[in-house]
Write a structure and sequence with these properties.
Layout lengths: L11 H27 L5 H25 L7 H22 L8 H25 L7
Helix pairs in contact: 1-3, 1-4, 2-3, 2-4, 3-4
């Protein structure tokens, strides 16, 4: 049986950096979605196109976030989880208390919040998919 070395612990500074990255990415997402909703892109076919584009845009963010904070690739899912948790917490507060941050129209605000939820789900799925696996055997 092969012995696997224990991974080195994640430092508080790395977690804080991932939280900061999550906040920054949430902010960029809000700016983009406000622009898209103002342009009529948050309904129907254009909204589906935006949702589809989230996948290739999110892939490099999830792929390289561990490297940015100097974590091994084996911590990809952890990095995606911390960034996603941050965005979800902010999104929950904003949509619950100040949805005008997303849009003045309540339906568009919900569409923007939904877009951010979709992006978080995509980030988590990519974190899982990009996480290197250790196979037993």
């Amino acid at each position: 049986m092969h012995e696997h070395p224990l991974p080195r612990p994640v430092s508080p500074a790395q977690v804080i950096a991932l939280i900061g990255i999550g906040m920054f990415l949430w902010f960029l997402g809000v700016l983009f979605l406000r622009w898209a909703s103002a342009g009529g892109w948050m309904a129907g076919t254009p909204q589906m196109i935006i949702y589809a584009l989230v996948i290739p845009v999110t892939w490099p963010l999830v792929r390289f976030a561990p490297q940015v904070v100097r974590l091994p690739a084996t911590e990809t899912l952890f990095a995606a989880s911390v960034m996603s948790m941050t965005a979800l917490l902010i999104d929950g507060i904003i949509i619950g208390y100040t949805p005008i941050v997303y849009a003045t129209d309540p339906a568009l605000a919900r569409a923007c919040a939904g877009g951010l939820l979709w992006a978080v789900g995509v980030a988590m799925a990519l974190g899982l998919a990009l996480q290197p696996r250790r196979w037993l055997g």
